[in-house]
Amino acid sequence: MVCGTRGSFPQCSDHYKRYGRNTSCYYVDCSIHLFLDAGTGIIEGGKQVKDNKDVHILLSHLHLDHILGLLECDLLKDEKRTIHIYGEARKKESLKQELENLISPPFWPLALSAFPAKIIFHEIEAGQCFSIGSLHIKTKRAIHPDQSVLFLLEENGQIVGYCSDHEIRADKKEETVSFFSGCKLVLFDGGDLPSHIHEGWGHSSWKEGIAFKKKASVDRLLIVHYGYDCDDEILKKEEDEAGKEEENCLFAYEGMEIDL
Question: Are 188 and 222 in contact (CB under 8 A)?
């Protein structure tokens, strides 16, 4: 389920109502409760969890648009809940320390360690493979400022890729194509528009996504992580253009569900 589509910062205007106002978060309905990133979308998306089972959050990186939802996520306020957070350590600081640098006074009244839920931190590195129960996860380094990770999720023969916050034009494409080859679905970064490319910003465009989809033999492509200034009118035009080139290129909107 798509919980947050936006990059950089959430939007409030009605001009962003169709495709979404919240920042990056996606709930994967598999054998566990799994969220890809914890932008503001996780605040509402957390309501998908209706039991007391553990919740697992994969953080691609620690830019604010991918972690801001942790501040007000009800899952972290539940004393009966165990939350597993997976992410990278940077600059000789642990993942826990990095998050607590932001989620603590004076930036927030409640320190992360003071949230009622039990929070367990798991440090990962790009290139690492690991499993959570029957869900198998592969990782790869993304091309994005301050480090980011690409994820490949596999369970019961179903493979889903998460390729957000990645500048594919600067990538060794053969490696990325091989990494995502044969996916049923890939969530692909659409932070740039084909007509407005920002070199070095760590983002891609839907047009680059379509070229990637064909090379990697991906069944369906879901464009995510829209630019902060891309309102509904702009995105509708882009979606229509993309549809002319590839019918299995979809644009994400909040509340969207895709069955595999």
Answer: yes
| 8 Å CB contact between 203 and 225 | yes
Nearest residue to 36 via CA among 26, 47, 45: 26
- pTM assigned to the model: 0.96
How many C-alpha atoms does 246 have within 13 Å on its Cβ side?
Answer: 22
Q: What is the pLDDT of residues 175-225, one digit of tens each?
A: 899 999 999 999 999 999 999 999 999 999 999 999 999 999 999 999 999
Segment 101-121, tens digit of pLDDT = 999 999 999 999 999 999 999
For 134, counting Cβ atoms within 10 Å of its Cβ (0-12 exposed, 13-18 middle, 19+ buried), the class is exposed
Q: Quick count: other Cβ atoms within 10 Å of Cβ 228?
A: 15
